[in-house]
Write a structure and sequence with these properties.
Elements: H1 3-8, H2 16-25, E1 30-33, E2 39-42, H3 47-62, E3 70-72, E4 75-79, E5 85-88, E6 92-95, E7 104-105, E8 110-117, H4 122-135, E9 141-145, E10 153-155
Parallel strand pairs: 4-7, 8-9
Antiparallel strand pairs: 1-2, 3-6, 4-5, 6-8, 9-10
C-alpha cells in the first residue's frame, strides 16, 4: 500500500478501529497513534530487534512469568491526560493476569512495558512513549537497545512493588 493510497482515504480523526483497518490492509508497516492523535507509521522490526524481544521473553519465562501473561507486539489502548485515546504496540508487555483476546488491550493490568530502541526510534521510545505509558498508569517501563545503540533506560516508580 502506498502512502498516496493511505492519504486518499485518511479520516480527519484517526481511531483505533482505523488503525486496525490500516494494519490489516498493509502488512509492511506498523501503525500507532498517540492519545493526542499523532499518527506514526513505521516499518516492521528487523531480525536483531526480534531476537532481542525473543531473548527477553525467554528470560521472563525462565523467571517464572506464565506464558499467558507476556506477549510480543500486542496493541495497548493508551488513555491520554486530556481524554484522548491512543494505540501503541510495545515490543513486550507483561500483565498481572491473563487478558481477554483483542486488538487494543487496556493498560489496567499491565505490570511492565518493554520497548526495544532501534536506530531512528530513540525519541519516540525513550521520551514520547515513556510519558504516555506513565499517563496510562503502567507501573514500569523499560527500553532495551539494539546492539551498538543507546544504553538501557529503565524506570520503576516507587509505587511498583518488587521493582527495587
Amino acid at each position: 500500500m502506498s502512502s498516496e493510497a493511505v492519504g486518499r482515504y485518511m479520516p480527519a480523526v484517526v481511531t483505533l478501529d482505523d488503525l486496525t483497518a490500516m494494519m490489516a490492509a498493509d502488512e509492511h508497516h506498523r501503525y500507532e497513534i498517540s492519545p493526542e492523535g499523532v499518527l506514526s507509521i513505521m516499518p516492521p522490526p528487523g531480525y536483531a530487534h526480534a531476537i532481542i524481544a525473543t531473548r527477553l521473553m525467554l528470560w521472563l519465562a525462565q523467571g517464572g512469568i506464565p506464558a499467558d501473561r507476556v506477549a510480543q507486539a500486542v496493541g495497548l489502548r493508551i488513555p491520554g491526560r486530556h481524554g484522548g485515546v491512543g494505540g501503541r504496540i510495545p515490543d513486550l508487555v507483561v500483565w498481572s493476569k491473563e487478558q481477554a483476546d483483542g486488538v487494543w488491550l487496556p493498560v489496567a493490568d499491565v505490570l511492565l512495558v518493554i520497548e526495544i530502541v532501534s536506530p531512528g526510534s530513540e525519541g519516540v521510545d525513550t521520551v514520547t512513549k515513556r510519558s504516555e505509558y506513565a499517563a496510562g498508569r503502567t507501573r514500569s517501563r523499560l527500553t532495551a537497545p539494539e546492539p551498538g545503540a543507546l544504553p538501557i533506560i529503565g524506570h520503576c516508580p516507587a509505587s511498583c512493588r518488587g521493582c527495587s
